Amino acid sequence: MRLKGSLAVLSICTLIATVAAAPVRTDLPQRQELKRADLTMSPEMEVITSISEFKKGEIVPRHYHHGIETGYVLQGTMVRFPGQAPTMMQTGSTFMNLRDVPHAGFTVVGDLPLRLLTVHIVDKNKALYEWVK
Q1: CA-CA 20 to 30 A from 7: which of 23, 34, 48, 84?
Q2: Is the pLDDT of residue 14 over 70?
Q3: Alpha helix segments (H runs only) across 1-133
């Protein structure tokens, strides 16, 4: 009987340790990283180039980065920010988000997917995305 109790406690402790060690979501599943390299002028920073595709109904959560993000809209579509009318994110448009400034937080509402090419110049060894509630 003591053995069963000890095994139960061990199982619960193992489960708690596994859940505690589970990775926190720090990336978007829609992002495909193309290239990552150290920033030559600053060994504490890196450059990350990616393509992301968001389909109708998908949300780009509000977030910020520990560095600068710039991008190009490869394929535009309609998006909706909370409490606002839908707006067109135009193909060929560009954007830039500054260090630690929250951005995004919209839902894709157009029939075509939103495709973005992004370049992040960010601090190394930090999460690429910091989520804003």
Answers
A1: 23
A2: no
A3: 2-21
Report field, pTM of the whole predicted structure over 0.85 = no
Residue 125, C-beta contacts closer than 8 angstroms, at least 6 positions apart: none
Burial 33-71 (b: 16+ CB within 10 A, else e): eeeeeeeeeeeebbebebbbebeeeeebeebbbbbebeb
Average pLDDT rounded to a whole number, residues 86-114: 98
One of 1.10.1670.10, 2.102.10.10, 1.50.10.100, 2.60.120.10 is the CATH number of 26-131, namely 2.60.120.10
What letter represents residue 82's amino acid? P
d(CA 133, CA 131): 7
- How far apart, in whole angstroms, are the C-alpha atoms of residue 128 and residue 65? 6
